[in-house]
Amino acid sequence: xxxxxxxxxxxxxxxxxxxxxxxxxxxxxxxxxxxxxxxxxxxxxxxxxxxxxxxxxxxxxxxxxxxxxxxxxxxxxxxxxxxxxxxxxxxxxxxxxxxxxxxxxxxxxxxxxxxxxxxxxxxxxxxxxxxxxxxxxxxxxxxxxxxxxxxxxxxxxxxxxxxxxxxxxxxxxxxxxxxxxxxxxxxxxxxxxxxxxxxxxxxxxxxxxxxxxxxxxxxxxxxxxxxxxxxxxxxxxxxxxxxxxxxxxxxxxxxxxxxxxxxxxxxxxxxxxxxxxxxxxxxxxxxxxxxxxxxxxxxxxxxxxxxxxxxxxxxxxxxxxxxxxxxxxxxxxxxxxxxxxxxxxxxxxxxxxxxxxxxxxxxxxxxxxxxxxxxxxxxxxxxxxxxxxxxxxxxx
Length: 396
Known about the structure:
Elements: H1 2-13, H2 20-33, H3 37-52, H4 58-70, E1 73-74, H5 75-118, H6 122-151, H7 155-171, H8 176-190, H9 198-205, H10 209-213, H11 222-235, E2 238-239, H12 244-255, H13 261-273, H14 281-311, H15 317-320, H16 324-352, H17 356-371, H18 377-395
């Protein structure tokens, strides 16, 4: 009898203090008004769900954040999915993930439609004249922050970072094999092979199941090509949504020629002026490639890996999440990804900095973000759009 009372007491104690629909509606609201990028969105979730509402324990939040940092996928989206999983498991993770992404997806689809219809007009070109330069300033500052935060004083990580930065800047593309090699290099250096067991190796190798399955994309139709390309892109996004930029540029512009340089920069700008995850720019890109269904397929393919990489390891993460081999592997990949981002800044700057005003605007934005934390990126983008309109009016 006493044992039954204890079990009933535990069930009552662990019963969620919120309903599934409450956390889904919260995710929908955050996705609609959450500006500021992944770091800001992660902070909002802690403030609202842990401190204010007390729906999520601080322990569960920290575990979700750790998993989101270790596994491939956009940081904020993965954390939201994990928090949905905590008390409502796969259904909660699925609904929260959809709710978090949906508002910004609908926004970028609407902007994609407007861009296609009005993109040839002078005012639209003037807006992106200023916005494109501002984006360079924003991603320069973001690359600097990522570098300082992730590389530290480790000489090997700095070597990986510099190699990927130079390679990306020269070739104007991102090499996935180099990024993987960086992960394995750190793994082998910090954890010599004789320390490993087969189950550890198989656990890490399972991370690459998706890109292996989706490798043969060239033989399929356009939508299948979009799906396979963006699935691979989503698989190699670590931490910040900006990590996807060099990979997308190499594939969308250089390899498939789906977009021009300026269209790609405009797509990055659209992601900056909309709330939610920065990675949602894939919806805009997909729309420009193949209309509404292209947007749906690109967004679904990009977020599918991060969803799977959250719900599959979630039950086992407490047990294996601090594995030294896995941590070393992720550190190597992260250094390589940040190096690629830094190299991509140079590549994109060559396309967007076309004259003295755009150079001045890019530098001014980078300095403003460096000196103050009170001005958010959306306001900077809107100001840059206004400046672009003014400059183009004065020039013509």
